[in-house]
């Protein structure tokens, strides 16, 4: 029987509060990751997050490894690849962009996916509004072209694309694996690939006490807590409400960046963020949430 974390007490907490707690946890985990990046770089930071998170999830979920079909392993392997690539590209963008900017640009990935799947005319308009928002928050209209961090913007866009792929593969995996089994196995598979990259990139710095402590904090804030909160909330929350709450991710990221990293966005960037959030509310409220798998991962 798979362990269900926080089940008895968590069910007493209103579902919207659980989602909000997960959103805040993810974004403050991202802000903490930004302080780890100078120590071990993006590959090292992702390696610590995934490895420590996988160890914790192995204890919590105790997944079943045997008796899986070839299709099961293909699904969970695709999920693991999306998870690893999404985190590597997102953490790479955090090395170059404020977290509020990176998350807002990344958020376009699942927004476009939802619009494509829904095929509603109003969603196409929302995506155009989000595109305008990305232009504003990237600084393209207020910063000379030569000074724009195109690599950082590109990495954030790539992270958004992998986030969309993560959502699709989480659905495939959730249909074949019980509860947290698919997620836990995917984290282990992703760790097996990313940890060697982290070791090659960061070397012995990966085992520095400060790096390990921050890595543990990131694993808790960005993986264990939000996954558990979302799984509890999605049992009692409609997809429409979940979509509205999920749209607060960029704002939560900007708040985390301000409090933890002292990053301030300009008024133009805030307008751009508001456009992306508004577009997300319009699109994601009509989105179908995948049961038993977390989807607000970064």
UniProtKB/TrEMBL annotation:
Span-the-membrane segments of this chain are: 43-61, 73-91, 97-117, 124-144, 150-168, 180-199, 211-229, 241-261, 267-285
Main localization, broad class: membrane
Which key words are in the record?
Membrane, Transmembrane, Transmembrane helix
Lineage: superkingdom: Bacteria
Q: Does the record carry Ligase as a key word?
A: no
The way this protein sits in the membrane is described as: Multi-pass membrane protein
Single GO cellular component annotation? Answer: membrane
Asked if the record carries the keyword Ribosomal protein, the reply is no
The listed locations are: Membrane
Q: What protein family does this chain belong to?
A: Belongs to the EamA transporter family.
| Protein known as | Inner membrane transporter RhtA
Organism, per UniProt? Branchiibius hedensis
Q: What is the lineage of its organism?
A: Bacteria, Bacillati, Actinomycetota, Actinomycetes, Micrococcales
């Amino acid at each position: 029987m798979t362990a269900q974390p926080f089940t008895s007490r968590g069910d007493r907490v209103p579902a919207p509060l659980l989602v909000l707690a997960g959103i805040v946890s993810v974004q403050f985990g991202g802000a903490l990751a930004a302080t780890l990046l100078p120590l071990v770089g993006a590959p090292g930071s992702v390696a610590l997050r995934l490895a420590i998170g996988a160890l914790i999830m192995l204890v919590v979920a105790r997944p079943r490894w045997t008796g899986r079909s070839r299709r099961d392993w293909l699904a969970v392997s695709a999920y693991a690849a999306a998870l690893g690539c999404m985190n590597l590209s997102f953490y790479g963008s955090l090395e170059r962009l404020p977290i509020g900017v990176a998350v807002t640009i990344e958020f376009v990935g699942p927004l476009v996916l939802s619009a494509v799947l829904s095929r509603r005319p109003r969603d196409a308009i929302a995506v155009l509004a989000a595109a305008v928002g990305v232009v504003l928050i990237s600084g393209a209209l207020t910063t000379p072209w030569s000074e724009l961090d195109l690599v950082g913007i590109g990495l954030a866009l790539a992270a958004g694309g992998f986030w969309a792929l993560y959502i699709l593969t989480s659905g495939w995996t959730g249909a074949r694996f019980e509860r947290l089994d698919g997620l836990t196995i995917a984290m282990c598979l992703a760790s097996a690939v990313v940890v060697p990259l982290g070791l090659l990139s960061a070397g012995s710095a990966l085992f520095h006490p400060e790096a390990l402590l921050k890595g543990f904090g990131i694993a808790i804030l960005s993986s264990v807590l939000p996954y558990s909160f979302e799984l509890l909330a999605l049992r009692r929350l409609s997809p429409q409400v979940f979509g509205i709450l999920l749209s607060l991710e960029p704002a939560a990221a900007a708040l985390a960046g301000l409090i933890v990293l002292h990053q301030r966005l300009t008024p133009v960037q805030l307008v751009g963020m508001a456009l992306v959030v508004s577009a997300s509310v319009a699109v994601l409220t009509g989105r179908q949430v995948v049961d038993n798998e977390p989807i607000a991962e970064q």
